[in-house]
Design goal:
The protein has one helix and seven strands; from the N terminus they run E-H-E-E-E-E-E-E. The protein has 93 residues and is mainly beta. It has a four-stranded antiparallel sheet, with no helix packed on it.
Length: 93
């Protein structure tokens, strides 16, 4: 299982998955977007979402228009995934 978050890098990193979830509920970059859509295995996800969580073998497509410029972190915060290197950055110009 994996999850995708895209967010402003916090000044002090949360200590656990629950802490990251609380941070993401306010800082995920697609939340302010009025056009965010997510499909998992071809089925649209309804409602608001602050993370994309996929089970093994699933495929997801996230489409949104960012509302601010900057460099944001992308990461999986499942236990040991972030620490193992499942992170990167994306720049919005």
């Amino acid at each position: 299982m994996h999850e995708l978050h895209a967010y402003n890098t916090p000044k002090v990193a949360p200590k656990d998955e629950a802490g990251w979830d609380a941070y993401m509920q306010k800082n995920t970059i697609w939340l302010p977007s009025k056009d965010a859509t997510l499909t998992i295995n071809g089925k649209a996800k309804k409602g608001s979402f602050f993370e994309v969580e996929l089970q093994p073998g699933e495929k997801g497509v996230l489409i949104f228009t960012p509302t601010k410029k900057g460099t944001f972190e992308l990461a999986c915060h499942k236990p040991s995934h972030y620490e193992g290197g499942m992170k990167g950055t994306v720049t919005v110009k």
